[in-house]
Amino acid sequence: MAKFETGPTKAVQCSVCNKKFSRTDHLKRHQLRHSGVKPYACIFCKDAFTRSDNLRDHYPSCSQRKNRQIPEAARGGRRSHACDSCTSMKLGCDGNNPCKTCRHKKIECKFSRLQSKGILNRQETPKLDSDSTPTSDRGSINFLLNSGTASFIDCFRFPSSHENKNLFNFRNNQKSPESSDVVDMFGNNSDNGSAFSDFFEDESIDWSLFEEENLLKFLSTPVAEIHNFGSAPVMTNMPLPVEWEPASVQSAAIIQGVMESTQALHFNIQEQTQISQNLNFFFTPSKIDKFVAHYFEFWHPHCPILHQPSISIHTTPIPLLAAMIIMGSMFSSDDRDVNLGKVLLDLVEHYVYSIDDLTEESEVRQMFRASNPAPEMLPMSMLAFQHLQATYIIVCVQFWAGSLVARRRAADARFAVVVKMARRFGLAKVRHELDDSIDEHSWVLKEGRIRFINTITLLDCAFLFFANFPMRISFSEMNFELPCEEQLWASSHPFAEKNFTANRNVTLFEAFQSLFGQIKPEHAPVQATKGNPFALNPMDMFTLIHLIYVNAHTQITQYPSSFPRSPSDSGTSTPANHPEPLPDSNITMIKGALSRWRSLWINIRACITSNSWDKIGFFRNGFNYWLVIQLLINNKGSADILMGMEVGCEDALKQLRGLLRDGGGET
């Protein structure tokens, strides 16, 4: 007797592991595992889960909950908002009255279904002019905020939205029979070498998702990158307790160096006395040990430019040690340490930047003594490089914890010195050479320089992202090698590590070009895979997504006429001196790069365990910068907002909140 199938037909299939499901929502829930996104976070501890029911099961046994009440479960799904027409046609509805679909179809927009349930319909929105062309609903914006949950900001330490309903909606990647089977260098199918396949290409935009709480917090408070980073208020004249501790060689040298540098500031006797007291209270041997430990515990995972096994308090140059101490103090649990660290921050900055290696006088002296009458670049001693590392750390702590004036000075003037010195010493071309693979010490020194130039490039991008400062480092200068794997850099003897390779054989610019399908690796790295031909890691991906942001920002601001403007600008003629419209091919290339970046990110995340992922630092938040770029290139108000930003503004990301209120769709 023939057997008849009684169960549901499994009609949808995962594009990653080919597992089949009978329902689309089951597929979407399953694909969260491949993405690594855990949208449901415990409000008592750091644990996060892919499913809300797993979070509910976790709460009773949470070791951090103690006797606190378990939060009530949120109501499933989002609040009903669709009009009658969109509901009957099963279309996405923006909830406005009239909604965009009804305006486009020129039909009456009714909400009788919601009114019968006691749900009031939305306020009426202005109707489009008869000659206005409605923008398309097609695109991937509904995915933009889907990952904006606790995983987005777990490094930012914001209050957890434990029951936010995450709609991480993957689409089943099904090719049409007509499409050709061309596989690009990332293993993605496309119909030609430059086109790309997007999982979210056909999904309508649900703009209600842009009210997601955590993204609003991110756009409003972009400074709180690290736990308790400089969170205490500054008190300039606080009473200091009488605590005497014998000075060490290091503490005495720092105090003497800072006091000598203050002579150029012409403080009076009373002010000098106050500064001396503050320095002697702050730079004690015990506090130095504590703050250096804070530096490596809280800051180093996010900025691994120092080879920790080689660092010793007793041998580190005094300016670099002072910078590490002032950074570490920002993470102290004692408010007095944080307060006093902020009081002394400007003085330590002045001391570090007055070092002879960083002055123009030093450059003139070196040029005078150079054997070659016109050297291409000046030699860089290890001491000079460590002084340069100190300047970078000072820029970071000033920008994230300093006063408003200090923040602007750090991003504008002080960082310019860092970039100038990096150019002067030829770091833009630094790569591992044959000799480095023979001598471990030489390899560590060269790797430190490679990491430094990669890191200041990332900071250069961050200044554009957070404060709209133009990039100081050009794409053509990014001919330096990508940094090694973190496991090697953290090792006391990298050559003894099982997976040691002397170099990556790929520059940052080459990796960036690969996202646009313009280059393939000549020599595939040992750990390369079909989906990751350059063997990129989360730190690489974090830098690359910032570079894509720079590229998108440049295209939008240089070719603003290619993006739909605000209604007040519609219908106006383009001035004669207005930039030419951005070619559609440029927009397509940016979207293709974003698609390839996301595919790489998913592949890389799937290969890293959860424990290892948690130790990566804020590099693991790279996907959320991808979301912001999607917000920019798919929103009609991007050009207006970016063109209206001032250089060095304090609210660059906060201004993007205007895009969340703009339901105009993509370009």
From TrEMBL:
Residue span, Zn(2)-C6 fungal-type domain: 82-111
PROSITE patterns: ZINC_FINGER_C2H2_1, ZINC_FINGER_C2H2_2, ZN2_CY6_FUNGAL_1, ZN2_CY6_FUNGAL_2
Location of region: Disordered: 561-585
Matches recorded under Pfam families: Fungal_trans, zf-C2H2, Zn_clus
Keyword Protease found: no
Single GO cellular component term: chromatin
Domain C2H2-type per the UniProt entry, residue ranges: 12-39, 40-67
Compartments, record wording: Nucleus
Alphabetic keyword roster: Metal-binding, Nucleus, Repeat, Zinc, Zinc-finger
Location, primary (coarse class): nucleus
Matching InterPro entries: VerF-like, XnlR_reg_dom, Zn2-C6_fun-type_DNA-bd_sf, Zn2Cys6_DnaBD, Znf_C2H2_sf, Znf_C2H2_type
GO molecular function: DNA-binding transcription factor activity, RNA polymerase II-specific; RNA polymerase II cis-regulatory region sequence-specific DNA binding; zinc ion binding
Gene3D superfamilies: Classic Zinc Finger, Zn(2)-C6 fungal-type DNA-binding domain
Gene Ontology biological-process entries: DNA-templated transcription
Alphabetical list of CDD domains matching this protein: fungal_TF_MHR, GAL4
Coiled-coil features, chain-numbered ranges: none
Keyword match Metal-binding: yes
Domain of life according to the entry: Eukaryota
Polar residues composition-biased segments: 561-576
Xref: PANTHER family: C2H2 FINGER DOMAIN TRANSCRIPTION FACTOR (EUROFUNG)-RELATED (PTHR40626:SF8), MIP31509P (PTHR40626)
Protein name (database record): Uncharacterized protein
Species of provenance: Mollisia scopiformis
